Amino acid sequence: MDLPATMRHVAAREPGPPEVLGLMEAGLPPPRHGEVLIKVAYAGVNRPDCLQRAGAYPPPPDASPIIGLEIAGTVVALGEGVDGWRVGEPACALTPGGGYAEYCTTPAAYCLPIPAGLSLLEAASLPENYFTVWHNVFERGALKRGETLLVHGGSSGIGLTAIQLAKAFGARIVTTVGNAEKAQACLRLGADHALNYREQDFVAEVATITAKRGADVVLDMVGGDYIEKNLKCLAIEGRLVFIAFLRGSRAEVDWRFVMLKRQTITGSTMRASPHERKAAIARGLRERVWPLFESGKLRPVIYRVFPLAEAAAAHALMESSQHIGKIMLAVAPE
């Protein structure tokens, strides 16, 4: 397959606000051993992208410095040692970086087929959120059928993914949101209770909803003063899982809850996870989650699509928290 010598990509002139983002040109990245090169049709926008742009989340040493953690498109080249993928096949993928570009390399082990019935745009919205939720809620948090999940930020991409997956696997879901519109969106997608944190005390509400038993798993991306509140919300043997700290990672906490209720605290960052763990998550998604898209039990939620050249506007929208679902970039729509 003939490939161009250069590609467009989004770059930050310097660490700063969304306005520092603009288009630049660079050479195509060659796929290394075990990697594929994908011609990108769409890329997802995620909170870690904004942190990287601001200079607060540098990429791993061996990753592309270009922003972007999830893509969908067409495989156009294979590195040595790649099995299971062929040039010309469509794929969606988690990436170590490089997604805001016309071409992106990623390990073949992080690639997944496009679920039957989904478009490339919809498929590009899946990897970052589904890798994160599957690993943190179901593997680290060990959520089981019949248990209660409390998920904060329910109308975010992560939140809506957690709601749909937990419902599909038979859990009860309580979520927190910032307004009535977001609450209704969460309820439509499977949440049993949507609490407006601006108007309701979610600790008291969770106690009422669960008859004072508490939630079995809490998925938290807020941190700060939510940390102690989450411990209060947890049931005996409950599991608190951190994936971000939008309000900060430091807090004064009464840790007696951990001992009295035998609670477990865990968390992870997907980008820093070992290669084999991410490969294993991809296999788990392909086996247990991708069929749920094909049966209609799960569906992507796309809020808005921006052209690649308008990545700054996409980041501004992400940081405003006004969206419900995924924000996407159209790189080279097919």
Brief sketch in words of this structure:
The protein is built from ten helices and 15 strands. It has helices spanning 47-53, 120-124, 127-140, 157-168, 180-188, 202-209, 226-233, 256-260, 275-294, 311-320; strands spanning 6-12, 21-27, 35-45, 70-78, 90-94, 103-107, 111-112, 148-151, 172-177, 193-196, 215-220, 234-242, 264-267, 302-307, 326-330.
How many E strands?
Answer: 15
Q: Report the principal-axis shape.
A: globular
Q: Could you spell the SSE succession in H and E letters?
A: EEEHEEEEHHEHEHEHEHEHEHEHE
Helix count?
10
Average pLDDT, all residues: 97
Low-confidence stretches: none
How much is the radius of gyration in Å?
20 Å
Give the helix level as a range of percent: 25-40%
Which structural class is indicated by helix and strand composition? alpha/beta
Question: What does this molecule look like?
Answer:
The longest helix is centred in the C-terminal third of the chain and has 20 residues, at 275-294. The chain contains 10 helices and 15 strands. It is α/β, with parallel strands linked by helices and 334 residues long. 29% of the residues lie in helices and 27% in strands. Helix 3 (127-140) crosses helix 4 (157-168), helix 3 (127-140) crosses helix 9 (275-294) and helix 6 (202-209) runs parallel beside helix 7 (226-233). Strand 14 (302-307), helix 10 and strand 15 form a beta-alpha-beta unit. The mean pLDDT is 97. It is globular and about 65 Å long.
